[in-house]
Amino acid sequence: GPLLFIAVIMYITNEKDLDDILFVIFMASLICNLLGVIEFFLQSPLFSNLLITKNEFTEAAISVKVRNDTYRLRSVFYNPLVYAQFLISFLFVSLFFYKNGKGILSKVALINFFVSVFLMYQTGSRAGLFIIMLVPLLYFSCKILFSLNFYIRVLLCVFIFVGISFYGLSSIGYISANMSTVQNLDYLYVQGYLDEESLSSLTRILQLQIGFASLSLSPIWGYGVGNIQIAMEPLKVIDNYYLSILIEEGYLGFFLFLLFHISFFSVALKMIRIYGDFFLVVLTSSLLLTFVYYSILSIPSANLLTYVFMALILKKCDFLKTLVCKL
Fold it and tell me: For residues 196 and 207, what is the distance between their CA atoms, to the nearest angstrom?
């Protein structure tokens, strides 16, 4: 990931390189979505016979994993949730080429946008669908927010923070109320008292319970990168990227992670407010919603596109500053 970030930074020398890289990503999205549509009609993984490494993800692909008797698409990916994460980025890239493209490219981009929404539904990712609903809300909120004066923006941010805090407290209450259910998770599922969606939600609660209990034994430094399986035993899979960072790197590493990303988004949002550049709006929005999605997915190999987008944003900010200095 970080090496890819550096490689993209070094490759880009002008604004045309930015557009070229984004166009390559757009073409990749077309291919992935075309295969996703084919898979939808076949109702079977297209590449299950190519999955050589056997683990919990590849076994799901080979066994044609469904949720509540509904097949879940994965396209070229080994997990439906990974495909859903990439679809979030595909949505915004399609929006960019719909607005900035000409002729057939603009029409294809619009079609790809709606196809991405349909395929997101077919992945069975509830969080992905929720994030898609946030897209227009995020767009109009940013448009309104940047048109207001500073004090009103601060007031709105306070209201948003209070809302998020209220949601967090409600989640804690939900977790506390379901702890007894979590303790009997396997029994309840085998006996048919839980459907797969309820099982998925309660499993995430169990992960939080075990994760924070393990973190209390090494809160500052964590367990070290690559040792999360030791901390989360007997669980084999973690569905929360932030919980993974907390357990592996402790509160110190998590603080540095937050500090870096908050600084990054502060710079990006400041440049958007000053220049209103659509390229920055699209990629920054995609990253923000991807980071929301990280709360239900923790597969580092799926984060490659995130590093590419971050590199593109930084180079675009650099080009904008250079342009202003020349003027």
Answer: 16
Distance CA 216, CA 29 (A): 42
d(CA 65, CA 45): 9
Closest CA to 90 of 13, 9, 34: 34
Would you give the distance in Å from CA 156 to the centre of its chain?
Answer: 25
Alpha-carbon separation of residue 7 from 13, 280, 310 (angstroms) = 12, 20, 12
Place of tokens 């084919």: 38
Q: Tokens for 67?
A: 């949720």
Question: Which amino acid type is present at position 234?
Answer: P
Q: What are phi and psi of 67, to 5 degrees?
A: -125, 120
C-alpha separations of 101 from 23, 112, 236, 239 in Å? 10, 13, 45, 37
98-104, Cβ contacts within 8 angstroms, sequence gap of 24 or more: 99/278, 100/278
In whole angstroms, what is the distance from residue 161 CA to residue 259 CA? Answer: 18
pLDDT tens string for the chain (327 positions)? 678 888 888 888 888 899 899 999 999 999 999 999 999 998 888 776 554 444 544 454 444 455 556 788 888 887 888 888 888 888 889 988 998 888 899 999 999 999 999 998 888 887 778 777 776 666 666 666 556 555 555 565 556 555 555 555 555 555 555 555 555 665 555 555 556 666 666 777 777 777 787 888 888 888 888 787 777 777 767 777 888 888 888 889 889 988 888 888 888 888 888 888 888 888 888 888 888 888 777 666 667 888 889 999 989 988 887 766 655
Label residue 124 left, alpha or beta by phi (over 0 means left) and psi (-120 to 50 means alpha). left
Angle of CA points 94, 97, 99, to nearest 5°: 110
Check: CB of residue 218 under 8 Å from CB of residue 250. yes
Q: How far, in Å, CA of 222 to CA of 250, rounded?
A: 4
